[in-house]
Amino acid sequence: MAKKTANSKVKKKPDADTLIAVYMDYVLEHEKTPRSVYKFAKDNDMTEQDFYKFYGSFEGLRKAIWDRFFENAMEVMQKSKEYATFSNREKLLTFFYTFFEVLTANRSYVLYTLSEHEMPLKNLDQLKNLRKRIRSYAKTLIQDGNSDKTLKLFQQNEMIFSEGVWVQFLFLLKFWMDDNSAAFESTDVAIEKSVNTVFDLFDNTPLERVVDLGKFLWKERMA
Fold first, then answer.
1. What pLDDT score was predicted for residue 147?
2. What residue ranges do the domains of the chain occupy?
3. Alpha-carbon torsion (55, 167, 136, 210), positive or negative
4. DSSP count for the chain of H helices, then E strands
């Protein structure tokens, strides 16, 4: 059988997920982000058109990576038959546990990309789409809970709760990035305590949970 030459090699056109995988691998291998789409495409046997078919820029691709993290977590949760029967508190706990498992599977990339620039806000810019998704998910939880409450007096504010969940996520993200415990067990504890605190705040019984969370954070800070 005649050997195939380099020019006769059939090149498979990349899809959106392939571009994400190649980009993440590039970042980890070179410990830097690509300088240009042209060079990135050429180094990976594709054309600029192959890239721009799915993403308008590296910035768009970076945001899409976080979208994929979110989608992967949601897919895992929804495959569970028990998830639909969970309370809103249990659903949010499950979401955070699952999402941080996804992040842990990609920890090297996440740590790099969130520490790349000296200005923290510039690193967080890639989370804009994720913020919308997490807030939307949080709103569905509150809407579900409010549907069971006939009096508006007892209904919870969707905007405040959704923004609170986003701020909670940012806190947990920073905690996870700094977590040196085995299997990130401390992050699991932080997730449990913070979610319970958020729901108790909305149930008007916050004191015990707030004190409990405060003691835990103090212990972690002083360890």
1. 52
2. 57-169
3. positive
4. 11, 0
